[in-house]
Amino acid sequence: MSAPLLETIHLSHLPPSMPVHVALYRDVQNAPYLRQQLMSANAEFEYAFIDASTVISRTHLLSAVFRAVNDYMNGRLKSRNVHSEMVFSLSPATNIAESFRKFGITDSTKDLLVVKLSVTPEITHDSVAAHLGQNVEGTPVPFDDETLSKISDIAKIKKAYKLGALNTTPPNQANGTQDNGMRRLELSVLGAIALRGAT
Amino acid sequence: MQLITQGAEAHLYKTTYLSPSTPAALKIRPTKPYRHPILDRRLTRARVLQEARCLVRLVREGVNVPAVLAVDWDINNTNNNHSGAGGDVGEGVRGNGAWILMEWIEGCVVRVVIQRWERYIKSRSAAVKLQDNEIEEEEKKVKGLLRRVGAAVGALHKAGVVHGDLTTSNLILRGAEEPAAEGDGEGVSPDMQGEVVLIDFGLASQSIQDEDRAVDLYVLERAFGSTHPRTEPLFGEVLEGYRASYRGSGSVLKRLEDVRMRGRKRSMIG
């Protein structure tokens, strides 16, 4: 197993003592094992395991993380812990089980995003990197927009966010228009994440 | 965080989203201590959500508005409660207000662009006798901007939203340079390229009625008349831009004539 390319990020407006650690893997071999650890609520494996094909960009993922951590700090979690809440936060709907099925790791997941919040000072970049290095069988790749764009399944994302009508690839159009379409899709998705559960 | 402006209901700050390199606008609606706690929470929440819903819908429809990045419609009293569970506050407890974090739009409000233009024309015509073709060129430029304003309002209405408070201060010309200091950029005709972006949806609502749409235009027309007296004769360009922007604009413009006759309020009876 190779050393993960674990990125540690300090998000604006969150306490500096609570950085977020994110790693992206391709070609993951042991998804069923990882999912099993989640199902059995193994405390060692308290991570957000996300199917990377459902994520458009860094901003998309980090928005869901931001929402989950903000809800965590305000004592408003709807799911078991802040990490499951990150998966749930990706979803525009309020059904938790469904959000896991759509955005979480499945047995057939090949491209995997792993997120961990430093909820206690013992959780550091090194401790997370070491644990992931031992347990995730996959190829670590950088967590950037270019890599994500190769992984994301736009049709699946549109369906999950009910944005099917949104035109992201107008035929016979210049490339600039296509980028605009993707930008619009991303911003619409951010809005859906922000407004989830609003009544 | 830098305070940009403050209204009766909300404070607007410039801050960042996720990373320090992404600027964002934070609109905070603080709790109003003179209101009953239950009413206060409900009103604050309803208004923030109304604004956010309109914006999200408009982004989806491709209208030029700031995107919603994050919303908190009920900031908790017991903050930093890391227990993660059972933090729900009871109905009767006073909330701590609400906020919306929005995409930052870089540019200059249309009000300032037009005012600078009016000053430019005034100073030019005082200094030298303006040639007819120069006046024509300058007017063409403003007319183009006004048509784009009309088209932006049309796109908004087409998407099923009315703004509720259209003024030239609630329109941003994207990319236009803000005058750094008083009197800066004086003596040059301001740049009027760029997209027109609608902002401040604090009074917006979802409606497709001619009446509501016409009132939107009427409010803009009145605001325009009082803010830009020199440019008022060109307001017709806004309406032309509006007319061309979607089907159904014709009946709204017809309704606008009725609204002009009686004012913004439909019925004064009772």
From TrEMBL, chain A:
GO terms for cellular component: cytosol; EKC/KEOPS complex; nucleus. Gene3D superfamilies: CGI121/TPRKB. It comes from the Eukaryota. It is found in: Nucleus. Keywords: Nucleus, tRNA processing. Its main location: nucleus. Pfam families: CGI-121 (PF08617). One of its GO terms (biological process) is tRNA threonylcarbamoyladenosine modification. PANTHER family: CGI-121 FAMILY MEMBER, EKC_KEOPS COMPLEX SUBUNIT TPRKB. Belongs to the CGI121/TPRKB family. Component of the EKC/KEOPS complex that is required for the formation of a threonylcarbamoyl group on adenosine at position 37 (t(6)A37) in tRNAs that read codons beginning with adenine. The complex is probably involved in the transfer of the threonylcarbamoyl moiety of threonylcarbamoyl-AMP (TC-AMP) to the N6 group of A37. CGI121 acts as an allosteric effector that regulates the t(6)A activity of the complex. The EKC/KEOPS complex also promotes both telomere uncapping and telomere elongation. The complex is required for efficient recruitment of transcriptional coactivators. This is EKC/KEOPS complex subunit CGI121.
TrEMBL record, chain B:
Keywords: Activator, ATP-binding, Chromosome, Cytoplasm, Hydrolase, Kinase, Nucleotide-binding, Nucleus, Phosphoprotein, Serine/threonine-protein kinase, Telomere, Transcription, Transcription regulation, Transferase, tRNA processing. The keyword Nucleus applies. It catalyses: L-seryl-[protein] + ATP = O-phospho-L-seryl-[protein] + ADP + H(+); L-threonyl-[protein] + ATP = O-phospho-L-threonyl-[protein] + ADP + H(+). SUPFAM superfamilies: Protein kinase-like (PK-like). Gene3D superfamilies: Phosphorylase Kinase, domain 1, Transferase(Phosphotransferase) domain 1. Its main location: nucleus. It is found in: Chromosome, Telomere; Cytoplasm; Nucleus. It is an enzyme of class 2 (transferase). One of its GO terms (cellular component) is chromosome, telomeric region. InterPro entries: Kinase-like_dom_sf (IPR011009), Prot_kinase_dom (IPR000719), Tyr_kinase_AS (IPR008266). Its EC number is 2.7.11.1. Component of the EKC/KEOPS complex composed of at least BUD32, CGI121, GON7, KAE1 and PCC1; the whole complex dimerizes. Belongs to the protein kinase superfamily. BUD32 family. This is EKC/KEOPS complex subunit BUD32. It comes from Aspergillus eucalypticola (strain CBS 122712 / IBT 29274).
